[in-house]
């Protein structure tokens, strides 16, 4: 069964920090640019069909070629692990703090 990717580039107000997040440029907005929190809303990217709706708390980053590439998450409701691509306009200070936290 192939995953179906639905492009959803919608702005939103972050449930964690209240930051206003506009649509992303060149990609889809899937997490807060300030605190990096996301919501567990998709079964397949963009479908908004996941009934969990838990908060995806950032727990680390993945690296590729010496650069941070993705944010690692754990859902605070169902404990599932998830990853999202880092966006160009993500807060660099929040990303660096997350990278340092994970050791």
List keywords for this structure.
103 residues, mainly beta, 4-stranded antiparallel beta sheet, 10% helix
Instruction: Please mark out the parts with pLDDT under 50 across 5 or more consecutive residues, or reply none.
Output: none
Q: What Rg do the Cα atoms give? A: 13 Å
Overall geometry comes to: globular
Helicity level:
under 10%
Please identify the structural class as seen in this structure: mainly beta
Distance between the termini: 37 Å
The main pleated sheet reads as: 4 strands, antiparallel
Strand order of the largest sheet: 3-4-5-6
| SSE ordering | EEEEEEH
Compute the average pLDDT.
89
The tally of strands reads: 6
How large is the share of residues in beta strands?
25-35%
Contiguous helical run count:
1
Oligomer: single chain
What does this structure look like?
This protein has 103 residues and is mainly β. The strands form two sheets. It has a four-stranded antiparallel sheet, with helices on one face. It has one helix at 92-101; strands at residues 12-13, 20-21, 38-39, 55-64, 67-75, 81-85. The radius of gyration is 13 Å and the shape is globular. It is built from one helix and six strands, in the order ββββββα. 14% of the residues are buried. The model has no long low-confidence stretch (mean pLDDT 89).
